[in-house]
Amino acid sequence: MPGVDYYADLLRDRRRIDAFLQAITAVVRPGDHVLDVGSGLGTFARAAARAGARRVTAIEADPTAAALARELGLERDFGGRIRLLEGDVERVALDEPADLVIFEDFGRFAWHPNLRRILETMRGRLARPGARFLPEQVDLFAAPTDKPLPSVDADPALPFSPEALTLLRKRHLSLPRPEGVVAAELVATGIRVGDLRPADGQPPRKIYAGSVQAVRTGTVTGLAVWMRLRLTGALTLDNDPSLEPTAWKQMILPFQIPLPVQPGESAAMSVEVSHGPGPLSELWRWRLEVP
Ligand SMILES: C[S@@+](CC[C@H](N)C(=O)[O-])C[C@H]1O[C@@H](n2cnc3c(N)ncnc32)[C@H](O)[C@@H]1O
């Protein structure tokens, strides 16, 4: 679980905070019951109360953050209009469904192991039908990168066989890697490959795809992926590698076999996600094809 430093760092990330504060001021209506899911210190819950929400429910699973939020006066300030429920959003119950849900924990590319279930819980059990979500939409982007990826090299000093190290490397490169990427590490300009709307259910299988053209020579080590949160109207916040970094970095979907590309070469890029019925039955596949 993160500590106080993590939450203090989030408060210093002003590009992210300011965008959310501006969006919250714009979307909160006076009669609203607002839900702040993953409320941390309660920054967004406080902003919703300040913007005039009738009541605000903050939900936070991390006991350290919940205790600190209480100590900082989350339930005392704003005339008691904010209530904090400590626990996993999938297990809390509300006495009144929410009109507006604020949720920002989309990982780096609208993916982390619990995201789909959290979205279903918010939509199906905690929000009223037709409730608004902030962000309204998450746009997903991808581009091939040649950023070198750390790997374990066959080294006789290590007490593993070369086969075991090859297997480890293969396992390592079969998973999405949280990784910061800068624009100079992209071999082609990033494109939007799809979107996700928190208010809508997700199909069991989704393919994010598009075509890119290499702008320079490179040996592609994976697909760099990132997202743009459409907070409300034209107000957006994203972790595009060409922008000043926020607390969110990017993610790399690594290739086991690097792929050399030449400037001007086109490539078809796709990221596929399929969900099965069980909580862990989620499959991700990604590819880059140069004709
Ligand atoms: C990126 S932090 C954001 C905190 C806060 N919104 C802010 O801006 O400071 C995400 C928060 O979501 C909480 N969280 C993650 N999964 C959760 C879950 N399933 N139920 C409740 N809280 C959760 C984490 O503990 C963390 O505090």
* Gyration radius over CA: 21 Å
- State the CATH topology of the largest domain: Hnrnp arginine n-methyltransferase1
Instruction: Write down the overall geometry.
Output: globular
Question: Which quaternary structure do these chains form?
Answer: single chain
What is the end-to-end distance?
Answer: 45 Å
Q: Which percent range describes the beta-strand content?
A: 35-45%
For the report, how would you describe the main beta sheet?
6 strands, antiparallel
- Would you count the extended β strands for me? 14
CATH class of the largest domain: Mainly Beta
Helical fraction equals: 10-25%
Q: What would CATH call the homologous superfamily of the largest domain?
A: Hnrnp arginine n-methyltransferase1
Query: Mind telling me which CATH architecture of the largest domain this is?
Result: Distorted Sandwich
